[in-house]
Amino acid sequence: MDPLGNLVEWIAIYGIFGLIAIGLAERFLPALPSYGVLVAIGIAADDFWSLHTAVIATTLGSFMGALGLYFLVRVIGRKRSATLLYAVGRWVGLSQPRIDWTLSSLRDREQSLTILSQLIPTVRLIAPVAAGLLGTSTLRFIAGVAVGIVLWNGLFIAAGHLAVLASPGINSSMLALKILILLVVTEGLVALVWRLRRRSAVRVNPGASGR
């Protein structure tokens, strides 16, 4: 059984438009594991498309989705956007404290964290809404999110391609499950380090917690 492999075969029917569509869809369908789909796309690269085509097309689709969310926030205003942000957060499984942490992080270092937010599962889905809510400039958002998406998509597509070269006939879904475990552990360690640094900063400068 290889559900992701079967999904990629269906995407391949539509060629580059299928890749763009799946990149766009992952922005609005939390149940769709983007890293798993990207790995499966990398595994199938030699059969259906080139690596650079896969990266460019999926990046374009995902970028369109992120940009659409960002401008939606700018249009509907901050009050409604805050409500939207928490609603989207619940939809993708993020608690309100986690969302507040994301907002605080983006506010402190917008440019670098706009990029990094695209490399954190689930957080990457709400980051465009958060950026719009915080009033991040359009050019800064475009530059940051574009770099982040290229890194995310390129990393997993390349991982899938290298995996199939090392082990022909590899099961896409099983590889994606292993990567998910690695991502969860890595994300947990990053969050722990951030909290420890935050607490250390508060102890050194008590006024920092109220900023």
From TrEMBL:
Residue stretches making up the VTT domain: 32-161
TM ranges: 7-29, 49-73, 141-163, 175-194
Cellular location(s): Cell membrane
Keyword flag rRNA processing: no
Entries under InterPro entries matching the protein: DedA_domain, VTT_dom
Record key words, sorted: Cell membrane, Membrane, Transmembrane, Transmembrane helix
Entry keyword rRNA-binding: no
Protein name, UniProt field: Membrane protein DedA with SNARE-associated domain
